[in-house]
Design brief:
Blueprint (H helix, E strand, L loop, with lengths): L5 H13 L5 H8 L3 H28 L9 H14 L5 H33 L2 H39 L1
Helix pairs in contact: 1-5, 2-3, 3-6, 4-5, 5-6
Length: 165
Amino acid sequence: MALKTLHDLYVNELKDLYNALLKALPKMAKAASSPELAKAFTDHLAETKIQIERLETIFTELEVSPKGKKCKAMEGLLEEGKDVMAEDADPSVMDAALISAAQRVEHYEMAGYGCVRTFARLLGFDNAADLLQETLDEEGTADKKLTDLAESVINVEAVEPAESA
């Protein structure tokens, strides 16, 4: 796809965000030893399904297929997450690593959603901009939950195995 207009870029970026979002969260929830972390991943998976529905609504309004683009950056982030899950790690250290991997994905998504929301506003797609803002808000909340969980429990527990060794 040639990127000759902001509309072209907008569609391209939407396709980028649509690619590969649901694959990692169930695996991360299963790999988590902390029930709170597993629940955070499972809860965000439910949100992500709604976010995909929002994107599909936008694609329908644009009369464009969401298919056709592989997001190399997201694939790389998900591959790093898979690599982390394959490590032989203390359960609390694994949970800290899972949060780190998940937050990389969240930050990538927040950057992408912020850009497409702005493009939508500039292009006059107010409904799409509102839908994208909802998703951006949810991604920010998910990131904050992970930070709070990391700082209050998970990372604290991950320090202890190193201290007792």
